[in-house]
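Hey all, quick one. A colleague (J.T.) asked me to put the 2-acetamido-2-deoxy-beta-D-glucopyranose job into the tracker so the inputs and the structure tokens live in one place instead of scattered across chat threads. No bug as far as I know, just bookkeeping. Sequence used:
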Amino acid sequence: MRPPRQLPLMGLLFFSLIPSQLCQICKPLINTMLKANYTKGIQNANVLLTLRLVGIKNQSLEQQLSQQIKEDINSKEMELTSGQLALGILALGACENPDEEFIHGAHLVSKLGDKFQAEIQNMETHDGNPLTNYYQLSLALLALCLFNGSYSITSVTYYFTPENKNYYFGDQFSVATLAKKIQSEGKQGLFGNIFSTGEAMQALFVSSDYYKSKTNCQETLRTVFYNISQNAFSLPIAAAQILPALMGKTYLDVTNTSCSHNPVEETSWGPYVTSVQGIRASSSDRTYWQLLSNGQPLSQ
Ligand SMILES: *[C@@H]1O[C@H](CO)[C@@H](O)[C@H](O)[C@H]1NC(C)=O
Ligand SMILES: *[C@@H]1O[C@H](CO)[C@@H](O)[C@H](O)[C@H]1NC(C)=O
Ligand SMILES: *[C@@H]1O[C@H](CO)[C@@H](O)[C@H](O)[C@H]1NC(C)=O
Ligand SMILES: *[C@@H]1O[C@H](CO)[C@@H](O)[C@H](O)[C@H]1NC(C)=O
Ligand SMILES: *[C@@H]1O[C@H](CO)[C@@H](O)[C@H](O)[C@H]1NC(C)=O
């Protein structure tokens, strides 16, 4: 095995399918996140991540969530799974905020590297099965990429190629097979469940194949909007998972320096979306992400 190396991760901006009136429908989701009672520590990491990623400014809530996440990491670091620690890092490190100190001080990125390595070792000895699941593995790899962690490029190349169909980004879906799943099973436009839909949507938005079928996209959005109106995303974690995709963000934007200049402003009526940054009208724009090694896609 070659020594671990760093892998540059390219994220390009994402193509607009979403009309600006969309954010009318985002409001109940934002309210769900703002009004919930949070007691579950690291399990709410994705709520903090979404608040920061889409630029919902509520300092007291941010502080409360960040405090709970740090306490959990301090008190049960060993028990945390790779995906939990990855989400913790993504949330604490999102959009240039003071919590980055904590990530460095507690050496969280190298600890995540160890957990990722343990997953890979388990895959090597147990017929490709990780300790957790491919979804967590993908989150861990994403966090390692974005926060300059190290990992074995050989293993990643082997296990994360589309041929291996291991690149999961929703509980049951790999990016490689997502498009097909949508055609076959996703007639209702909502794939997986309300928890995985948001992340699956992010994956789709960065996967260029999906745009070949605009109908799929619109169908998915229509169903999501309908489900929102039916209160399907009434749990803060579910709301937090769907919101970035609806607002044109993916987890790849976490370390983007423009991430901290975001469009949501707080007014006396609560948060209000004044503009949707980064979403352009051009339908010729495409977005995708690729894992590149020395400029070459990993699968080659
Ligand atoms: C949160 O907790 C407060 C006080 O314990 C309670 O009044 C309120 O209904 C709770 N809110 C939700 C959304 O559960
Ligand atoms: C900010 O978050 C707190 C919970 O920490 C919530 O009680 C409050 O209503 C939120 N503020 C707004 C303007 O939504
Ligand atoms: C990762 O490394 C690159 C290049 O060395 C640097 O520009 C970037 O700020 C680093 N990112 C983090 C989150 O440390
Ligand atoms: C979402 O809406 C579809 C109809 O378009 C419905 O079949 C499905 O049960 C809804 N899901 C949830 C979780 O409400
Ligand atoms: C960061 O975000 C800005 C605006 O949202 C975009 O123009 C830029 O391409 C992004 N940079 C990266 C590296 O994704």
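Adding what we noticed when we looked at it: The chain has twelve helices and seven strands. Strands lie at 9-11, 168-170, 173-174, 264-267, 270-273, 289-293, 296-297.
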